[in-house]
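Exercise 7. Given the encoded structure of a 265-residue chain, write a plausible sequence.
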C-alpha cells in the first residue's frame, strides 16, 4: 500500500486526509493518506523516506512550505518561482518539490467565473501562501497588485522577489481596487477582526478569504454588510489537492457537490 502524508505544525485542523482518502476510495486506489505533526528537525528524515520509497508523496503545510526547499533534489518551476513547496514526489531517483497552490488559487477563482484580467488587487498579509497568490495573479494578468502587511519588512522581502507588486504602508487603502484578498491568519479564530475601512473601500468589490474554516470570517461578513461579493478559500483548497492527487495517482478525481460538502462536515 502506498503511503502519503501531510506534514505541518499544527496539523490537527488539516482537512487534506479527509479529501485525499475520499478520492483514494472513490478511485479504488491502494493507498493511505495521514497527517503528521513534525518539527523542523524531522524534515531531513521524512525526505529520506521518500527517497527510500517508504513514503510515496507528501503535502507540506504551514510553517514548512519554504523551510523544506533546501531538502529536495529538484524544484519545479512553480516551486522555484515561489520558493514554496506543498507537494513532494519521487521520480527517476530524485525528490521533486512542487507547488500546487498557484494552480489551486487560479482554478478556484475561475470556478467562480471571476476574471482577474486588468483588475486591481489588494492583498492583506505576507505569509507562506502569498508568493503563490502573487504568481497566480500575475499569470492571470492582474493590472496592479497592492500588498499590505503588519510587518513591513516581510512585505519588502516579497517586493524584492516580485518587483511588480506595490507595497502599501500605514494601513492606507489603494484607490480603484476591484478585489481584496485576506491572506493573513486573522479569521481562523472566529472573533478575529481585520482593521480595514470597509466603508471607504465602497461596494461591489470581490472579497476573497483564503481561510475556509470557519466558512464566514468577520472579513467576509463585514464585506457583505457593505454590499460586496464574497468567497472563501475552499475551492482553492480543493483544487490544490486535486492537482497533487493527479500528479501522484495519475487520476483526475471528481470535484462535485459531494466533495464540496465533505469539507463542511
Ligand atoms: P507565516 O508568516 O509564518 O508564513 P502565515 O500564517 O502564513 O505564517 O502568515 C500569517 C500572516 O498573517 C502574516 O502576514 C501576519 O503578519 P506579520 O507578518 O506581521 O506577522 C499576519 N497576521 C497574523 N496575525 C496578525 C495580526 N494580529 N494582525 C495583522 N496581521 C496578522
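Solution.
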Amino acid at each position: 500500500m502506498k503511503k502519503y502524508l501531510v506534514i505541518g505544525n499544527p496539523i490537527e485542523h488539516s482537512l487534506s486526509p479527509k479529501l485525499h482518502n475520499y478520492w483514494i476510495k472513490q478511485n479504488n486506489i491502494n493507498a493511505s493518506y495521514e497527517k503528521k505533526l513534525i518539527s523542523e528537525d524531522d524534515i531531513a528524515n521524512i525526505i529520506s523516506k521518500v527517497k527510500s520509497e517508504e513514503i510515496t508523496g507528501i503535502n507540506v503545510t504551514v510553517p514548512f512550505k519554504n523551510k523544506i526547499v533546501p531538502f529536495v533534489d529538484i524544484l519545479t518551476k512553480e516551486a522555484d518561482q515561489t520558493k514554496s513547496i506543498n507537494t513532494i514526489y519521487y521520480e527517476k531517483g530524485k525528490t521533486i518539490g512542487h507547488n500546487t497552490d498557484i494552480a489551486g488559487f487560479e482554478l478556484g477563482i475561475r470556478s467562480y467565473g471571476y476574471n482577474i484580467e486588468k483588475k486591481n488587487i489588494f492583498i492583506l498579509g505576507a505569509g507562506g501562501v502569498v508568493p503563490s497568490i502573487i504568481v497566480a495573479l500575475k499569470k492571470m494578468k492582474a493590472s496592479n497588485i497592492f500588498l499590505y502587511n503588519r510587518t513591513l519588512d516581510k512585505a519588502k522581502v516579497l517586493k524584492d522577489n516580485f518587483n511588480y507588486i506595490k507595497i502599501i504602508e500605514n494601513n492606507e487603502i489603494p484607490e480603484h481596487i476591484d478585489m481584496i484578498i485576506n491572506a493573513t491568519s486573522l479569521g481562523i479564530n472566529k472573533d478575529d477582526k481585520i482593521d480595514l475601512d470597509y466603508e471607504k473601500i465602497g461596494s461591489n468589490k470581490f472579497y476573497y478569504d483564503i481561510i475556509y474554516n470557519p466558512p464566514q470570517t468577520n472579513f467576509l461578513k463585514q464585506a457583505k454588510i457593505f454590499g460586496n461579493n464574497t468567497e472563501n478559500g475552499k475551492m482553492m483548497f480543493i483544487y490544490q489537492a486535486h492537482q497533487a492527487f493527479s500528479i501522484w495517482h495519475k487520476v483526475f478525481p471528481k470535484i462535485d457537490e459531494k466533495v464540496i460538502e465533505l469539507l463542511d462536515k
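Remark. Residues 103-232 form a domain with the Rossmann fold fold (CATH 3.40.50.720). Students should compare their own answers with the one above.
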